[in-house]
Amino acid sequence: VGQLTGGLAHDFNNLLAGISGSLELMQTRIGQGRLKDIDRYMAAAQGATKRAAALTHRLLAFSRRQTLDPRATDVNALIGGMIELIQRTVGPSVQIDTVCLPDLWPALVDPSQLENALLNLCINARDAMPEGGRITIETGNRWIDRQAAQRQDMPEGQYLALSVSDTGTGMPPEVIAKAFDPFFTTKPLGQGTGLGLSMIYGFAKQSGGQVRIHSNEGEGTTVSIYLPRHRGRAEHDEVPPEAGLRPVAEAGETVLVVDDEPTVRMLVTDVLGDLGYAALEAADGGSGLRILQSDARIDLLVTDVGLPGGLNGRQMADAVRVSRPDLKVLFITGFAENALLSNGQLEPGMAVLTKPFAVDTLAARIRELIGA
């Protein structure tokens, strides 16, 4: 725990220094009338914010508390769509080979998180081959029997296996034993957070699977992600919504925003105003429920899940759906609270957005829910 909190505090203090310093310089330059410097400081603050969001995301993945969006996924197609990005990332000195089983079972998994995991594994493999080498990405169907399940600490059954192998330096047993520990890294200072493998491990476990490492010093390493077989057809990717904040609301359409953090309420209501919606605000579940139980027109509820006052966002939404059964609900949350899901999934007309979020993403979710 000390290693985890110490590493976390170090990384966040660095990021906060960049954000705070950039904001102070923006304030100073505005006071001086030197507006041409503002964009540079704004970009620095936004970059540090995105890195901080990525860090918390990796921590939530390690603790198995990240918000996942599992879909029936064709992992072979996912790999095919990433090969160009992986090759650009690892560089020309590394050859990428794929050995994909044609009749691969689908997996019920968050495809964007699986993409992140695959890219992380390929980056680790590249770093283990400083003079270049070969990375092999392989998929297969695996039946894990009782003995294998006990040996690999996973339930017996049918799994899809995604493996990344390299021809690098390999790892001794003592390094393999610590490989999934948060902030453990063998890379030089400043070249790795030590969260990559722990994030992949947490993601796999949260998805009902497992991660295993096979390595010999001087002979390379294979990291395999096991994901439970999904008995259904893989979904096809949807066309992403158009970006931008053009007014789209119809006359009188109203959104209730419930969040105990004033800054978040301000952000969401400003986006709603840009989209042409009227906005109502509440700071806790009780206040939000009173508005919802009134005669006010409410077309969408946007609420945090963790609210003060004894009534969380999910409880408030469930309570109001008795009288407003068709009310659309967008949950905004810092992590995947257990209170959010009922039987492992959201009900129709509900969606979730993980903090921190891009303004365009928030706008797209709002348009999508109200227009459905």
Automatic annotation (TrEMBL):
Pfam families: HATPase_c (PF02518), HisKA (PF00512), Response_reg (PF00072)
Reaction(s) catalysed (UniProt annotation): ATP + protein L-histidine = ADP + protein N-phospho-L-histidine
EC number: 2.7.13.3
EC primary class: transferase
Gene Ontology molecular-function annotations: phosphorelay sensor kinase activity
Residue ranges occupied by any Histidine kinase domain in the UniProt entry: 7-231
Signal peptide extent: none
4-aspartylphosphate modified-residue sites: 304
Superkingdom, taxonomy of origin: Bacteria
This protein's record includes keyword Cell division: no
InterPro entries given in the database record: CheY-like_superfamily (IPR011006), HATPase_C_sf (IPR036890), HATPase_dom (IPR003594), His_kinase_dom (IPR005467), HisK_dim/P_dom (IPR003661), HisK_dim/P_sf (IPR036097), Sig_transdc_His_kin-like_C (IPR004358), Sig_transdc_resp-reg_receiver (IPR001789)
Keywords: Phosphoprotein
Domain Response regulatory: from-to ranges: 254-370
Annotated protein name in UniProt: histidine kinase
